[in-house]
Amino acid sequence: MLTQQIEQPVHAIVHRSRGITGGPITRLMSPSDLGQIIKPFVFLDLAVFEDGEERTPMEYLWHPHSGIATVTVILEGAIRFAETTGRNGVLPSGGVEWMRAGKGVWHTGQAEEGRVRAFQLWAALPPDLENGPNASQYLMPDEIPVAGPARVILGSYGGERSPIVAPPMTYLLVSLDPGQRWTYRRPKGHDVAWVAVHEGALQTTSTIPTGEMAIFEPSEQPIEFVAQGKTGFVLGSATKHPHDLVLGSYSVHTSPEALRKGHEEIHRIGQELRARGALAAGRPKS
Predict the structure, then answer these.
(1) N or C of the chain: less Cβ packing under 10 Å?
(2) 152 phi, psi to nearest 5 deg
(3) Dihedral of the CA atoms 99, 121, 284, 114 (nearest 10)?
(4) Could you read off the pLDDT of 89-109 as tens digits, one per residue?
C-alpha cells in the first residue's frame, strides 16, 4: 500500500513503454523511437532468462557495434562475455559491463544456468569518441559505489562517483523498501530523465509498474518517488545529446561519414572472425 503522498514539485510522465518482447528479451526503447527523445540514452533491453530455459551458444551471438557504448547491469544470476578486444569472463549478479565500441568492436554473451536478469543500455557517443579507440571496463559488485539506495553505475550521485570513464551522464540502479520515499536531484543541465522498473512499482504523478519505462518532461527539478512494495529500477539523466542519430544495424553515429567509417571497421573485424572460424554458420553479415 502507498503510505505517503507525493509532494510538489511534480513532473509529468510524457512517454511510457512496455516495449516489445521476443523470447527472453523485452526491448523497451530503440534508437528509432524513444531513443530520439532521450538521447544520449538510445536503447534499453530488459532480459529475463528463466531457470531451465535453453541457452543459445555464444558462438551464435557474436555481433558488432560502433559509435556507441553498451552498459550491462546484472540484476540476478550471471552472464559470460567475450570481445574481439580479447576481454572475456563472467559477470555475477551486481556486476556491470561498460564497453565503448568507438570505431568498432564485436562481442558476444551468454546467460549462465539458473535465473538471469539484466538491463542492457546503449549510450550514443559524442563526435570525439564515436570513431575513437574502443575501451571496456568490467566491474564486480563491490567496485560499484553506493549512495543511499542507489548504486552509481555511471556519473556521480550523493557524493559518490562511478569508476567507469564515460561521457557526462548519470545512470543509477536503485532499490527501495515498501513505502520508502526517494528524491532524485538532477545535476545542473540534465534536462533528460527516465526510469525503468524491474521489480515492484513506483509512485510519482502516477504509478510506474514492473516492466515499464517512463520518460519525464524536460526539466532540471528534483523528481520524487515512493515505492509500492519492494521496488527496483534503473534511472538515467543527462543533458540531451545535441547531434542527429544516424543509424546502422548495430551502430549509432552523428553523421553518415562517421557511420561509414564504423561500418568499414566492423566489416573488417567480421572478416577476421570468419577467417578463423569464430562465427557459427547463420550469423548475419556485417
Answers:
(1) N
(2) -90, 100
(3) 90
(4) 999 999 999 999 999 999 999
Give the 3-state secondary structure of residue 212.
coil
Whose cell is 539506495? That residue is 149
Determine the longest span between alpha carbons in the chain, in angstroms: 61
Task: Give the model confidence (pLDDT) of 215-247 as tens digits.
Answer: 999 987 889 999 999 999 999 999 999 999 999
CB-side neighbour CA atoms (13 Å) of 123: 27
Cα gap 258→264, rounded to integer Å: 10
Sign of CA dihedral 185, 187, 193, 195: negative
Q: Which of 226, 149, 147 is nearest to 180 (CA)?
A: 226
Structure-block grid coordinates of residue 110 = 551468454
Distance CA 130, CA 125 (A): 5
Residue 10 burial by Cβ neighbours in a 10 Å radius (0-12, 13-18, 19+): middle
Query: What is the pTM (predicted TM-score) of this model?
Result: 0.92
Which residue in 112, 93, 120 sits closest to 55, CA to CA? 112
